[in-house]
Amino acid sequence: MKKITLLLCALLFVGFSMNGNAADDYTIKKIDVSFVDTPAYNVNPPAKQVRAKKWLQMEVAFQSKVDFTEELVFNYYVYFAERLFVGKVECVNIVKERELFTIAYMAPNAIASILQGRTLTASDLVNVSVTITKPGVAAPLAVAHWKSARGAWWEAMKQEPGYIVNKSETPFAPLSWDRYESLKPASAR
Question: Labelling 119: which of 111, 126, 148, 187 has CA 20 to 30 A away?
């Protein structure tokens, strides 16, 4: 009986050392949050330009210790104008590098509908938190906060999906193409 127990322990140890601890494999280094203007493009024939509107941009710098990851999901929790907005960005084919990036946005019209005609103020955006998850793994692999929040503060709040979009759903799609990790195609979601 002791031999079987020792054998099982040895196999478990080897299995864990080969797979590593998934929670240590990914780290969110920084969340940069800013309001940016809609990009202007010069096209032929010239298009009518309107005054640029403000987008909420949330860029995540992260690190992977895994040589190759098929898919990671970045879950965004945005406490804005006393409401919690949630969304996700699904990245694929992530190769281990020193620093990797992904990005999400809230559109100007979404912001306007949330503010209901009020002028945007610095106090409207309270916090942004991001978790990294992986299909088939229940617990977050990494968590980071833009401000000094702690824990999963968003769990006890009413969550509103549909306001946060990935880069391909914005006019920023063709910009800085190589900076950001590849998005999972819409047809595969």
Answer: 148
Tokens 């990914």: give the residue. Answer: 26
> Helix, strand or coil for residue 142?
strand
Beta carbons of 94 and 74 less than 8 angstroms apart? no
The total number of residues shown for the chain amounts to 189
Specify the DSSP class assigned to residue 141: E
Mean pLDDT of 147-172: 93
Please say whether the structural domain 21-39+52-188 has been given the CATH code 2.60.40.10: yes
- How would you class 63 by CB atoms within 10 Å of its CB: exposed for 0-12, middle for 13-18, buried for 19 or more? middle
pLDDT in tens, 97-132: 889 999 999 999 999 999 998 888 888 999 999 999
pTM: 0.84
Instruction: Judge contact between 99 and 114, C-beta under 8 A.
Output: no
Closest CA to 29 of 107, 145, 160: 145
